[in-house]
Automatic annotation (TrEMBL):
Lineage: Eukaryota, Metazoa, Chordata, Craniata, Vertebrata
Protein name: Small monomeric GTPase
GO molecular function: GTP binding; GTPase activity
Family: Belongs to the small GTPase superfamily. Rab family.
Alphabetical keyword list: GTP-binding, Nucleotide-binding
InterPro entries linked to this entry: P-loop_NTPase, Small_GTPase
Pfam families: Ras
Amino acid sequence: MTAMRVDAKVVMLGKESVGKTSLVERYVHHRFLVGPYQNDTAGSERYEAMSRIYYRGARAAIVCYDLTDSSSFQRARFWVKELQNCEEHCKIYLCGTKSDLVGEDRSLRQIDYHDTQDFADGNYSLAVINLLLHWFLYWYFTEIGAQHFETSSKTGNNVDELFQRVAEDYNSTALQYMSAEETGVDLGQKKDSYFYSCCHNN
C-alpha cells in the first residue's frame, strides 16, 4: 500500500506565555524546557496585524489559553473570532495549557468546564459558579465547532492526542477531497497517509 504525504498549514495562536512554544517542544522533541521564551510575536497584542500573515491560508489552528489565567481565555476568543472572519475553512482546536498546575492545586484553575467536586466539598457558591461556567464553555465550544483539549507540556498529558487529532482530521478531509477528484477511485478504499505540518508557532 503506497504511503502518501499530505502537507498542511497549521498555526498556533494564543496570549503571550500561555505555553505555545512548550507545547511544540514537548510534541517534537519530547522535552520540557524551563525558562522564558523570547520573540513571542503573535502572543503580543502589538503584533496582531502581523499575525494575520501567519494564519492566512491555514487549514488548522490550535488556539491556546492558560488554565490558570482567565484573561488568556478572552484572548483565545479573540483569535477564534479572527479565524472565523478571515479563514472560514480553518478548523479550530482549543487547547487549555498547564493542566499539571491545576492538577497539583485546584485553586489555581480559572477556566473550568467539568469540575463538580465543589458540591462534594460543600463549596456550594463556587460550585454554582463552576456549573454556570461549564454550560457557557460547553455552549461556546459547540457554537464555534471546536474540539477541546487540556494539556500539560510538563507531563506530556494529551499533547500527542491533540496533534494526532489535528492530523487525522486533516487527512480525512484531504483524502475525501482527493478521492472525489480521481476517476475510478473507490471512496471506501483505505489509504495510509503521513501528516506533515508547517507549524507556525505564533
